[in-house]
Amino acid sequence: MTTIIPFEEGEKHLDWLGLTRAFDAGHQRPKAEIADVFLYRGQDTLLNRSAWIDGLGLAVKAATVFPGNPAKGKPMIGGAVNLFDDADGSLSAVVDFHLVTKWKTAGDSLCAALKLARPDSRKILIVGAGTVGASLIAAYRTGFPKAEFTVWNRTADKARAFAGAHGIDWAEDLEQAVRAADIVSSATMSTDPLLKGDWFQPGQHIDLIGAYRPDMREVDDTALTRARLFVDSFDTTLDHIGELKIPLAQGVINRDNVIADFYTADRFHRQSDDEITLFKNGGGAHLDLMCARYILDAWKAA
User: Fold this and answer.
1) 34/242 Cα distance (integer angstroms)
2) Deepest of 7, 134, 198, 287, by most Cβ within 10 A of its Cβ?
3) Which residues are CB-contacts of 176 (< 8 A; sequence separation ≥ 6)?
4) What whole-number distance in Å separates Cα of residue 275 and Cα of residue 170?
5) Rounded Cα distance, 273 and 27, in Å
């Protein structure tokens, strides 16, 4: 019988560090076979993402991203996640789309930060006062429990309201906030770079989440040339997301400048306290599969 896992009931059984361990274990398995299909209509996007990991199972996630919806009082993102059994292909579970997306996205960034950020990081800047920003606070608090958080948003009133809701500070000046942070985690819908590499300080970790289309970027070229670059998956970022696709095509960076992904764990680490690390969270379908499987296992265990 197919298990149906709703958001609130499913979330009760999850923890962020447990998910990062599931990600690490998932990347020890045979490399995922993945296929992404992107369809566009203006600013609207349909993403169909599928993954198969031998021994873990299959997942199909369909996501719609309609940036104009919030102005109409509707959610910007919708979709569904289906998890299939590895042995016989039967439908094991239908997991709430927003539950998988929330935990996969923020868990991906936390998994990287635990490897790349300085363990003594105490000041975390969240760029973007949206739903993902709230998830990032929850995730990062588990990995960096002594950290203090600040949020910046293009609209100051939204940053102020977000800060009040989460009991954190808010910043009016982005450059000053970036310069003061140990970790900068950006989750915006920006197509033009808003984070400047000249602002970055030695020892920082930069976590980029927002860009998901070929025309989207959150950092400028200087940021990429000053930092050591990491991704969650070579296969789902380099040729698909503007953050890296554009500077690679223009010769600003080359393929060798992207040092490691989660499948190359022996190279996925910080080398010194002074270097700047930059991680692009691409959130591929294989991570949706690993996350959905973790959610199902936690559900069954409970």
Assistant:
1) 19
2) 287
3) none
4) 26
5) 26
